[in-house]
Amino acid sequence: MITTSIKPIQDVFATPPLIFPENIQFDAYIKNLIEDRSIFKYIRNSFIIATGTSLLTLILALPAAYALARFRLKGGGVFLLILLVTQMVPGIMMAMPLFIMFSTFNLLNSYLALIIGNTTLALPFAVLIMRPFFLSIPKGLEDAAVIDGCNRFTAFVRIVLPLTKPTLLTVGTFAFLFAWGDLIFALTLATDESIRPLTMGLTTFVGQYGTQWDSLMAVSTIAALPIIIIFIALQKYIVSGITAGAEK
């Protein structure tokens, strides 16, 4: 992807293919980052949608995972099975029901629609990852906090929540990743160019009569950079969070 983005267009179709280009040029980056800055609109939208999805997923997954871990809920096992099954449902199967529902509530072409759509895919994963971590935290810590004057909620906020930092970062990062790379909901729930994310911006380089491969690969490289930076910065927490979520 990177080498294609810095090749002259004639070298993209060279036979045999050139892994390392003989002539390096950055015309595609200059064109899409300096001359034509419309791509920044898509990047902004992707950040809004991905960040909103990450936050909404954490807000919903935290109490759900904690309740499934700490309380004996009737039908809790069935609920966990349903969450597991939903991981096997392709996202495209959710697109049409969500389109009908959001059109009823006039939510189409809004950030909220895309955030909720992506959260439906990230939420089951988040609950399944966070529940085992809560199971690994000794319940005696909360009981001691209750004895010291906390109620159930303050014990959760002051004692349990600070211990979940690796898992929170893991779940938040993966939810961000799901939303950042989404194309299905962006295609079905948003027709307004002003709120479409970066994945839809990439499709502008694919036309009926050809593909602008240099520009497509240059913008794809730019789109991958935030995810790479996030994983490099948080890899220690992500690995520990995944490990903690797999202990039980």
UniProtKB/TrEMBL annotation:
<dbReference type="InterPro" id="IPR050901">
    <property type="entry name" value="BP-dep_ABC_trans_perm"/>
</dbReference>
<keyword id="KW-0472">Membrane</keyword>
<dbReference type="InterPro" id="IPR000515">
    <property type="entry name" value="MetI-like"/>
</dbReference>
<keyword id="KW-1133">Transmembrane helix</keyword>
<feature type="transmembrane region" description="Helical">
    <location>
        <begin position="215"/>
        <end position="234"/>
    </location>
</feature>
<dbReference type="Pfam" id="PF00528">
    <property type="entry name" value="BPD_transp_1"/>
</dbReference>
<dbReference type="InterPro" id="IPR035906">
    <property type="entry name" value="MetI-like_sf"/>
</dbReference>
<dbReference type="GO" id="GO:0055085">
    <property type="term" value="P:transmembrane transport"/>
</dbReference>
<dbReference type="GO" id="GO:0005886">
    <property type="term" value="C:plasma membrane"/>
</dbReference>
<feature type="transmembrane region" description="Helical">
    <location>
        <begin position="47"/>
        <end position="66"/>
    </location>
</feature>
<keyword id="KW-0812">Transmembrane</keyword>
<feature type="transmembrane region" description="Helical">
    <location>
        <begin position="78"/>
        <end position="102"/>
    </location>
</feature>
<keyword id="KW-1003">Cell membrane</keyword>
<protein>
    <submittedName>
        <fullName>Sugar ABC transporter permease</fullName>
    </submittedName>
</protein>
<comment type="similarity">
    <text>Belongs to the binding-protein-dependent transport system permease family.</text>
</comment>
<feature type="domain" description="ABC transmembrane type-1">
    <location>
        <begin position="43"/>
        <end position="234"/>
    </location>
</feature>
<feature type="transmembrane region" description="Helical">
    <location>
        <begin position="108"/>
        <end position="129"/>
    </location>
</feature>
<keyword id="KW-0813">Transport</keyword>
<feature type="transmembrane region" description="Helical">
    <location>
        <begin position="168"/>
        <end position="190"/>
    </location>
</feature>
